[in-house]
Amino acid sequence: MSGPVPVGHRVASDKPFLIGLGVLGGSYLLIIAAMVLADLVFLDYGDRSVLGPESVQQGRYTGGEATVVVEPGRDYFFRRGENEAGLKVGGRSVTRDGLFRAAGGTVTLLPRAPGQAKPVTASLRPKARVRGIAVTNGVATVTTDVAHGQLWGEFIRVSGADAPGWDGVREITNTTTNQLSFAVTEGAAAAGSLSLSRPNPLVQALRSRDIRFSIKLSLISCTLTTLLSLWVAVPIGYLMSRFEFRGKPVIDTLLDIPIVLPPLVVGLSLLILFRYVPEWLSDAVVYKWPAVVLAQFMVACAFAVRTMRVTFDQIPKRFEQVALTLGCNRRQAFWRVIMPQARGGLLAAGTLAWARALGEFGPILVFAGATRQKTEVLPTSAFLELQAGRTEGMLAVSLIMIAAAAVVFLIARTLGMKRIFA
Amino acid sequence: MIALENIALRQGSFELSDLSLELAGGEYGVLMGRSGCGKTTLLEAVCGLRRISGGRIILGGHDVTELPPAERGVGYVPQDRALFPTMLVREQLAFALVLRALGQAEIASRVDELADLLGITGLLDRTPDKLSGGEAQRVALGRALAHAPAVLCLDEPLAALDEELHSEMCRLLERVHRETGVTVLHITHSPSEAKRLAGCHFRLAAGKVTRDENGDCD
Lengths: 422, 218
Hints:
The complex is a heterodimer of chains A (422) and B (218). Chain A has three domains: 48-126; 130-199, Beta Barrel (Elongation Factor Tu (Ef-tu), domain 3), CATH 2.40.30; 209-421, Orthogonal Bundle (MetI-like fold), CATH 1.10.3720. Chain A has 422 residues and is an alpha+beta fold. Helix content of chain A is 50%, strand content 16%. Chain A has helices spanning 15-42, 201-207, 209-242, 248-260, 263-273, 279-285, 289-313, 317-325, 330-341, 343-359, 362-367, 378-387, 391-421; strands spanning 48-49, 66-69, 75-79, 84-89, 92-94, 98-101, 106-111, 123-126, 130-136, 139-144, 155-159, 168-175, 179-183, 195-198. The longest helix of chain A is centred in the middle third of the chain and has 34 residues, at 209-242. Chain A has 13 helices and 14 strands. In chain B, a hairpin with a 2-residue loop joins strand 1 (2-11) and strand 2 (14-23). Chain B has a domain at 2-82 and 148-211: Rossmann fold. The model of chain B has no long low-confidence stretch (mean pLDDT 89). In chain B, helix 2 runs parallel beside helix 4. By secondary structure, chain B is α/β, with parallel strands linked by helices. Classes of the chains: A alpha+beta (422), B alpha/beta (218). Chain A binds chain B through residues 316, 318-319, 321-329, 332, 336-337, 340-341, 343, and chain B through 44, 47-49, 68-70, 72, 74-76, 78, 80, 82, 84-87, 95-96, 99-100, 143-144, 146-147.
């Protein structure tokens, strides 16, 4: 060696390294949290008024302002468009979206740029008032004084009724332009007055029979898929981890196919496969609930297999070898020595498979279809809501999914902790 | 007794062939050799954990060449001990006995007897992660002796123990050997350890086992 080792060697602070780790990890966490938070904030949790038709005529701001004829003393819902600054009612000006009461016979819309002849984009809709209430055979028919725009199969919240048996969220069974019908509690006395509002999307979703069905089907099919996946993943993972045999790389590649393939293709391949099976089998599966489970299983199982294989890889062979010398055959060594150690991995594989199955959409759409109350799972519901133009409904379904997953994961992890630390 | 007759085995790139070794019943044999010369492989072959490509293995007078490890009547203590992490010390000691479907009372008394012999009575209700190196070694020894095997295979049992524990364990091994009369095959790379332990000395080098004449065999 040449010179002496220099004394007083100093190292740089660890802070930048640790901060870097935190920033890189934190930025991802932040995006996830922000995404969920945005969904939560976007949803309107209050009940909304039942509104009549649009009062604002299409046109342009020619004279600098636009006048809208209204009914004095009536409540209107104002939504500001991109070209408006607000509106003037009586002596007041309203700049926020929401309900206001008309004082005179007209209100004035105030354009954002008075000099330019921009189109009128504001919306002004009267709040529907109940004009008549009739009850026949437990079905109430409520007549509103304006066309209310409610659809059949939605929910309406009845409040402030002057008779018992009316208040609450009720499913609309029929609608006409200005009438809507819903069942009231049996034996409810006739009500003289009540008010109507639309429940928030979360309530609508949780009340909907279709979505209730899809929650149920999702929970059941995911659990079935998880059990099936573990049943297959444990033996495959163990075989791949412990034995060397010819063709192992081929099997390894085969196991990766469901992970690599686009989900839609998995569905399509299943559909094509079922053209070649006996008719009774394909009749029982395709476009029915078993197709949902099979589609979920094909993808979820691949992840469970990977997890189980890593789990078994991390358990040294030595344990089995000792067990064998102590008098076990391979089966006994597996159940008595290996599986107890693989519990953590089993739990991880199970939750991973469950989560994959819950989010699975593409293959289900192709292989099981999207039939309401038959093959509709939560991702299908979200898709159907979006297709129907109900963004809020879709978000409500998404929040239900997040909540369901969070509950299941919490339970699984708590159970796992207990088992590991007990 | 242990007799290896012209055995041949292959592991990856290295190959051992025409190995022979003979140890009479109740003897304490120490097999020495440099790290990586195939000592562990040889031990695994004796236990039945590795297939041999030629020759015969005879344990306690029976040809066990084709028998699975479970039927060979060996106790195996690997270098890393491999205590089952999910079991209490008591369960580890009882493991071989439960497999042989012994009665509960019989198992309990055998476990107590073993714990007494090895001085681990106070540790019976602990899990392996709560044991020190020396304690874990005793438990692994107890687990391997539970089913009263004719042959005990020890793979570097004293490696990674400090000086004091080392001599304590040596005394324990001697005591266990004396009291159980088991035939021991103990492998080590340390000549001083071999010297410390009475018995028959073998050396594995260049693919051959030779009896060390310095040993006080017989």
